[in-house]
Write a structure and sequence with these properties.
There is one protein chain. By secondary structure, the protein is an alpha+beta fold. It has 3 helices and 5 strands; from the N terminus they run H-E-E-E-H-E-E-H. The chain has a 5-stranded antiparallel β-sheet, covered by helices on one side. The structure holds guanosine-5'-monophosphate (5GP).
């Protein structure tokens, strides 16, 4: 199976601007820089996405994501931070190696648009809640 681009970064086969690294975790600047400082946090070991990564490793990734978000506020003087992880193509995942986006926000007119539109009309919320609960 062909290596994904993040496995290649972990193995040093393609360059990246690394902001954090330990035995299990790596964080580097996203090549797209949707906002200035946009960083990706990954486990070095390959897992497809957030839904399939072992819990302990996911916690380590999120710990580093939190620290990077704090650093974006402190060092880059961001006014806010979005923490985002896409799972599967339908949710916008393009690189199939678990990663967390840590995206500093500076103003309302920047290049990132996340919109939550009101869409609850006609949805049976009690039944919907039961549907989700039965698989937990
Ligand atoms: P996704 O859409 O899968 O959640 O996000 C994948 C991210 O990986 C995108 O934001 C994209 O810019 C970033 N990316 C893709 N290829 C590379 C690369 O070679 N180097 C770096 N640093 N980021 C990459």
């Amino acid at each position: 199976m062909e290596k994904d681009v993040f496995c290649k970064i972990v193995d040093g086969e393609i360059p990246a601007h690394i902001v954090y690294e330990d035995d299990e975790i790596m964080a580097f600047l996203d090549i797209s820089q949707v906002t200035k400082g946009h960083t990706l946090v990954i486990p070095k070991k390959h897992y497809d996405n957030f839904l399939s990564v072992p819990k302990e490793l996911m916690h380590k990734v999120m710990d580093v994501a939190q620290r990077i978000g704090q650093a974006q506020i402190t060092s880059l003087h961001a006014n806010g931070v979005n923490i985002l992880t896409n799972c599967y193509e339908a949710a916008g995942q393009t690189v199939k190696h678990f990663h967390v986006h840590v995206i500093p926000r500076f103003d309302a007119n920047d290049a990132l648009k996340i919109e939550f539109k009101e869409n609850a009309a006609g949805i049976n919320l009690p039944a919907l809640k039961d549907e989700i609960k039965k698989s937990l």
